[in-house]
Amino acid sequence: MCDQYEACDDCLRHPFCGWSFQPNSCFFVDDVTKSNISVTTCPTVSFIKQTSDLSTRPHTISLALENLPQFHGLYECVYTGYGTELQTSSERISEDEITCVIPPKENISLFTSISDCFGFNLSVLINNASVLSTFVKFFRCDLPYS
Fold it and tell me: How far apart (Å, rounded) are the C-alpha atoms in residues 69 and 59?
């Protein structure tokens, strides 16, 4: 029943399921395991800030986080959109902040811009396992799109 869920949010919507980050999996919770579950809320992004000084390299995005457990390992960011996926490095700055390197300009051209709007899904991976994702916009985005 619970193993059908691949994302933390979907898993924790079900009252009899619990989420484990290592490995990323949803599992059935009985009375015995209920008291041992540490993940009751999925990680979320509360604020996104793009590098304001564009003369510095590399350009980064800072993600303010809530509820992300402390993990040791390799942090990476994956930008997905318009049929393209680009992976960049990431660093956990503090308990509640991660920075992601923005793909280089030559790779950005792989994405399609729409009316001065540039958006994509950004996932944070730890040891190649996705722990959270959010939608990120660049430039002026006046038109809604999916």
Answer: 26
d(CA 90, CA 127): 12
* Per-residue b or e along 112-134, where b marks 16 or more CB atoms closer than 10 Å to that residue's CB: eeeeeebbbebbbbbeeeebbbe
Does pTM surpass 0.70? yes
Query: How many helices (H) and strands (E) are present in the chain, helices listed first?
Result: 3, 9
> Given a cut of 90, is residue 110 above it in pLDDT?
no
Q: What whole-number distance in Å separates Cα of residue 92 and Cα of residue 98?
A: 4
88 and 102 Cβ atoms separated by less than 8 Å? yes
Residue 39 has which token pair? 């993940």
